[in-house]
Specification:
Number of strands: 17
Number of domains: 2
Structural class: alpha+beta
CATH architecture of the largest domain: Roll
Distance between the termini: 9 Å
Helix content: 10-25%
Order of helices and strands: EEHEEEHEEEHEEHHEEEHEEEE
Shape: globular
Radius of gyration: 18 Å
CATH class of the largest domain: Alpha Beta
Largest sheet: 17 strands, mixed
Number of helices: 6
CATH topology of the largest domain: Diaminopimelate Epimerase, Chain A, domain 1
C-alpha cells in the first residue's frame, strides 16, 4: 500500500496539520486500518477506494477510532490524489463518507471543500465547560455531533489557554474548540484552537471540521460570508471559510512531505 504524508492548510512544509493518506483498491478490515492509523500516530489517517472516475469512498481514523468527519485529512487526500494524477483536475472530486457526499474542487492554487454547516445546540455540559475555562468570560455555543465550541473575548486568551486535558476528556463531545476575534490589524478575522484527548489527540494543529460551526457563527457576528481564519497551534495553519445557508466552503493549500509503502 502506497502511503503519503501531507501537511494540510498550509503553503509551507512542516506546518499546518499532517495527515497520512492511503489509496486502495479495496478497504482492508477495520482492525488493520485502525492499526495503521495507530502506527502513523497523526491526528488522522485517511483511506480512499475508487468508485468511479473522480469519485471515491473515504474513511478517516484517529490513532484510537474511526471518525465521521475530518476536514484536514479530506484536503490531504484530495491533494494526494491530484498530486499522483489519479483524478481529472478539471472536474470536481467527490468523496462518499459517513457525513454524506463531500466535494472538493480546485480554486486557483487552493483546494475548496464543500461541507455541511453545523449549528451547535445546548447539551448540558455548560458546568463542565465553566470548570475547564476557570474564571474566563466566555460564551458556550453548545455542541454539534463532534465538537463543543466556546467563544472567548480575545486572541490573546486563545493563545495563552492551557488545557486541562483530563477534564476535557470527560466531555461527551469528540473535541473541544475555543475561538475568538483576531487582534486588530491581522490579515485574518478570527482564531481558534482545538483539543481532543478523548480521541487520542491532545491538540489538533488545524481542524477543518470545526470550521463547519465556526464559519456560520463568525459570518453572522462579523457580517461577512467569507472570512480568513488562523488556528493558533504550535504548527499553525490558515484557511478561508465561506458560509452559504446549510453549506460551508473551506479553502486551503497542502504540501506532500513523505511517500512510502506499507510492507506488512
Amino acid at each position: 500500500m502506497l502511503i503519503t504524508v501531507v501537511d494540510a492548510f498550509t503553503r509551507e512544509p512542516f506546518r499546518g496539520n499532517p495527515a497520512a493518506t492511503v489509496r486502495l483498491s479495496a478497504f482492508p478490515d477495520d482492525a488493520r486500518m485502525q492499526a495503521i492509523a495507530r502506527e502513523m500516530n497523526l491526528s488522522e489517517t485517511a483511506f480512499a477506494v475508487p468508485l468511479a472516475p473522480n469519485r471515491f469512498q473515504l474513511r478517516w481514523f484517529t490513532p484510537t477510532r474511526e471518525v465521521p468527519m475530518c476536514g484536514h485529512a479530506t484536503l490531504a487526500m484530495a491533494h494526494s490524489l491530484h498530486d499522483m494524477g489519479d483524478v481529472d483536475a478539471a472536474q470536481p472530486l467527490v468523496f462518499e463518507t459517513l457525513s454524506g457526499e463531500l466535494t472538493v474542487r480546485l480554486n486557483g492554487e487552493d483546494l475548496e471543500m464543500d461541507f455541511p454547516a453545523m449549528f451547535p445546540v445546548p447539551d448540558g455540559q455548560a458546568a463542565v465547560v465553566r470548570t475547564i475555562l476557570g474564571d474566563r468570560p466566555h460564551e458556550y455555543l453548545g455542541c454539534v455531533p463532534m465538537n463543543a465550541t466556546v467563544v472567548l473575548n480575545s486572541q490573546r486568551e486563545v493563545a495563552r489557554f492551557t488545557p486541562d486535558l483530563p477534564l476535557i476528556a470527560t466531555l461527551t463531545a469528540a473535541g473541544f474548540c475555543i475561538t475568538a476575534p483576531a487582534d486588530p490589524g491581522r490579515d485574518y478575522d478570527f482564531v481558534a484552537r482545538f483539543f481532543a484527548p478523548q480521541s487520542g489527540i491532545n491538540e489538533d494543529p488545524v481542524t477543518g471540521s470545526a470550521y463547519c460551526t465556526l464559519a456560520p457563527y463568525w459570518a453572522k457576528r462579523l457580517g461577512r460570508l467569507t472570512l480568513r481564519a488562523r488556528q493558533l497551534s504550535a504548527r499553525g495553519g490558515e484557511l478561508t471559510v465561506s458560509h452559504a445557508d446549510d453549506r460551508v466552503l473551506l479553502r486551503g493549500q497542502a504540501v506532500t512531505t513523505m511517500r512510502g509503502h506499507i510492507v506488512v
